[in-house]
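Example record for the data management plan.
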Amino acid sequence: MTAVQIDEHDGVTVVRMAHGKVNALDLDLLSELTAAFHEVQAGAVVLTGEGRAFSAGVDLWRMLAGGRDYVREFLPALNDAFLAVFGLGKPVVAAINGHAIAGGAILAAACDHRVMSGGTIGVTEIRVGVPFPPTALSILAYAFGEPAARRAVLTGETMAPADALAAGYVDEVTTPDALLETAVARARLAVPSDTFRLTKAQLQASVRERLTRERPLLDPQVLELWLRSVEDGRIQGHMASVTGRGNAR
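Corresponding structural encoding:
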């Protein structure tokens, strides 16, 4: 069963995460998502989720079960997926159909425009006790602006659509019934593709320069803290506190 469904709607490619109850990010979903964005042929893309969530973020239970080897494979795959969405030289619109939490919020931020119809959005990594990869922080700062990104990261707060719009996390709010049509309409820009591609590359140039400079130093530190969080019970304790399920998944 595939984790990503690809359809076409009025000439726009719709990439739909359809993986479990809340489209939690694991290696399967990340690899399929990266491949989908590398292979897209249409002139624009809408990224959305199936069911009640856009994506609830990293599948921490899978990470705990997989241990060190899984974490070492997962973090590069997470960065690859973020950059595949962020760097696509075409219009990319997030149709946020439900909760977009942590890594799910980063995927939404990696899009050029965000339309939200329900759920909440926010980055909760600091509450889990794990650090952000520099790729995620840079995408957030680019999408939300530095002050809003800083507040989002340091508070770990999640926001409903109206508050997210006021905070600048999303660009517009609509109803669930109108979400896909609205997102597709925003994606279909009347701009020549070569002009759009170059303009987007220019806008993102400072992000890429920052990542080229910072990732060799910071990625290993981020990995070390994620490994520590898996082994010292930090993630396990967080999951128990939010689910009440202790060691059960």
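Summary line stored alongside the record: The beta strands are 4-9, 12-17, 45-49, 53-55, 92-96, 99-101, 113-116, 121-122, 172-173.
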